[in-house]
Amino acid sequence: MSGNEGEEEIVFEIGVVVPKKGENQGDESSLDCVDVLVDEFKKRGLIVERVLGLQNEFIKLAAPLEILGKAAAELQFRKQTHIGMDLPFEWDEVEAFVRQPDGSLFTWCERFRCYNHIIYWIVNTGKSVVELKYDCREINWIPGEPLLRKLESEGVVKEVFPLHDENKRKKLLRSWALNWWDFTTQPIDEIYLYYGVKIAIYFAFLGKYTRWMLFPATLGLTMQLVDFGSMQLLVLPFFFICLISWAVLFFQFWKRKNSALLARWQINHLAGAESEYKFFQMEQSSLQSPAELMKKRGADKMKEKAFFQREEWFRWLMRFRNDAVIILSIICLQLPFELAYAHLYEVIGSDFLKFCLTAVYLLAIQSFTRMGGKISVKLVKCENNENVEYRARSLVYKVFGLYFMQSYIGIFYHALLHRNLMTLRQVLIQRLIMYEVLENLMENSIPYLTYSFKKFRAIRNKRKREQGSSTGKGQTIPRVEKEYLKPAYAASIGRELEDGLFDDFLELVLQFGMIMMFACAFPLAFAFATLNNLTEIRTDALKLLAMMRRPTPRADATIGAWLNIFQFLIVMSICTNSILLVCLYDQDGKWKVSPGLAAILIMEHVLLFIKFGFSRIVPEEPAWVRAARMKNAAQAADMCSKQLLRSISGDEKIFSQMKKST
C-alpha cells in the first residue's frame, strides 16, 4: 500500500506463484497447503487477492502501513528523525521519523524487506506436525519450520517476485522513458522512490557522465574536422592533457553528487561498518547494563582483537588465492587465444575471411566468458566475505579482468606491436559503432522476444487444454501473469550476487576504457559515445519499465567497485596514450631519446601527478553535507553520552543500596 496518510488505495507489491489446482486434489477434508498459506498471510495482516492465470495461480499481497511499521520495528530499521539523528524505528513513535519526499514512510527497499520478513517468518508455532496436502501429495510442516521455505522446496511455490505499481509505472514512462526532449534530465527522486537507491544512483551517474561527455566530444569533433597540419603533434598532447583533467575532475564531482543525493534521500552510507562490528554488536546485545558492558568489554578486549585479526587475514588470503587463479587463467588461456586472433586478423587479406574469423572468435569468446564467470562465482563463494555487497565487488573485479583482456588485447596488439594506426582506427570504429548498436538492440529486443514467446506458448497450451470442452472460453492473460512472463532484471554472470546493473555498468566501463585509452588515435570516438549514451538513458529506462519485471531492490548507495575500475582505466589511458604519441612522433621506429620523446615522458609524469593531485584538491562531499553529518554525529554523541551517564549513575545507586542493605 501507499505510505501516505489517509490514502486508502490498495497497491499490491508482491506476487507469489503457485500451480493451478488440478482436477484430482485428493481428500477435500485435508488441509490444502495453498489455502493454509493464504490464511497465514491474512493472519499476519496482509491483504490477499488470488488470481487465476492461464498456467498458474497468483497470490497478490499488499500490506497496511501499520503492518509494515511493526515489521520494520522488529527488523530494527534505523531511520532519520526530525532532529537529524538516525534511531531504531518504533511504530508507537512513528511521528518522530522523517518521511520520504512523496509522503511515504518507507522506501521501496525497506518495504520489500518488511514483506520478506512477514511472509518468510510464518512458522509452525505448534508442538505437533501439521499435515498438508497438495495434488495427492502429503507435506509435513514441522514445528518451527518456515512455511514459505517449505513450499518452495516442495515445488508448490514457484517464485516470489515484486509487482509493478501500474500508476507510478505509467507516470515514469511519460516523464522519463518516453521524454526524449529532456536529453540527460531525469526524475531521479521518482526513480529512487520506485526502484530503490542502486538503480537511481546508476541513472544519476549515467546522466551526469553523458552531460560531461559533451566537452571531450566537442574537442574530438574539432580534432577530426580541423586540419592542424604540422601542429598536429602539438595539438594531440594538449587534447590528451584536457582529457585526463576532464576525467579526474568528473569523478571527483561525481563523488560530490553521490554524497549530495544520499544526504537528500536521508541515507547514511558507512561502508562495511555494520558488518565489521557485527560480532561486537552481538556481544553488546547480550549485556544487561552499561556497567556490565564496561567490565565485559575490558575482559574480552584481547579475544575480540584476535577474532578480527584472524578473520581479516583469512579473508585476505582467500581473495589473494582466488585472484591469483583468475590472473593465471587469463595469462595462460585467454591471452594466447586473443593474441592469435589479433595476429590472424592482421595477416589475413580477405575481408570475407576476416568476417568469418570474427564470427568464430565471438562464439568462442562468449563460451570462454561464461565459463570464466561461473568459475569466478564459485571462487567468490569461498572467500568468506562480510556481506553480499563485498561478494558482488569481488565478482566485479574478477569478471572485469576477463572482459578487459577480451576487449583490449587485440587493440593493444595493433597499436603497440604492429603500430598500424589505420587498422587501430578501423577496429575502434567496429567496436564503438557496431558493438554499441548491436548491444542496444540485443539488450532491448531479447527481453521483448522472450516475453512474447512465453505469452504465445501460454495461450497455445491453454487452447490445447480447452479443445473438445464445451465450456471452454477464451481467457485473457491477467496483468500479474504478464509480469511473471517477463524476464527478471538479472546479471548475465552471477545472478545470485548481482542484478542487471552489472551488465549496464560493464558496458559503460568498456566504452570508457576504449575511448580513453586510444583517444589520440581516434578523437571522434567521444562523439559516438555521447550519442550512444543519450539513447542509452531512454532505452534502459524503457527496458526497466516495459520489458522487465520490477527489480528486487538493493541497498548499495554508491557505484562500488566500478568507481575503482574507472580510476584504473584513467591511469591505463595515461600510459597507452603516451605510447601512442611516441608511435606518432617516432614513425621511423628508431626510438631515439630526443626532445620530443623526453617531453612525452615528462608529460606522462605530470598527468599522473594531475590524476592523484586533483583527487586531493576537490573535496569528495559538499560542505553542507559534511556540516550536516558532523552536526548529527555531535547530537547523537551528546544524547548517547547523557543517557549512558544516567544509566551508570542509576546502576551505582542500586549497587550502593544493595551494599547497605547487606
From TrEMBL:
Superkingdom of source: Eukaryota
Nucleus recorded as keyword: no
Keywords of this entry: Membrane, Transmembrane, Transmembrane helix
Principal cellular location given in the protein's record: membrane
InterPro entries listed in its UniProt record: Anoctamin, Anoctamin_TM
TM stretches of this protein: 192-214, 234-254, 324-345, 351-369, 395-416, 508-534, 555-581, 593-614
The keyword Cytoplasm is assigned to this record: no
Domain Anoctamin transmembrane: 191-630
Pfam families documented for this protein: Anoctamin (PF04547)
Subcellular localization: Membrane
Record membrane topology: Multi-pass membrane protein
Gene Ontology, cellular component aspect: membrane
Protein name: Anoctamin-like protein
